[in-house]
């Protein structure tokens, strides 16, 4: 019996091996139909594992974003470029001073290959103006 090249992901080592294989395949310049099929299969297997093993609900969207930025070695400047906003705006988002727009949520979900609802959940913002007024009064 022929051994399958890919199977359902059963552990974290296999998960990371598949992620690395997917990354290598995505970087291939002249993709064939077979490579496209392999990319699709690996993507499905990785997404299934993510859905079963990653509890993104435990993190608020900004904590999740910070974690993903660390994992992907993404700087605030690179994030600002990707979201097409200023570095100051990204700083405000990362410091809970401003919320994520629908467009940003869509871009983040697409970039990190997650469902939009991972970023589209309520979280508390630091209301600097309100605190300043209360302290002045």
UniProtKB/TrEMBL annotation:
CDD domains: HTH_XRE. Residues 65-119 form the HTH cro/C1-type domain. One of its GO terms (biological process) is regulation of DNA-templated transcription. Pfam families: HTH_3. InterPro entries: Antitox_HigA, Cro/C1-type_HTH, Lambda_DNA-bd_dom_sf. It comes from Pedobacter westerhofensis. PANTHER family: ANTITOXIN HIGA. It comes from the Bacteria. Gene3D superfamilies: lambda repressor-like DNA-binding domains. This is HTH-type transcriptional regulator / antitoxin HigA. One of its GO terms (molecular function) is core promoter sequence-specific DNA binding.
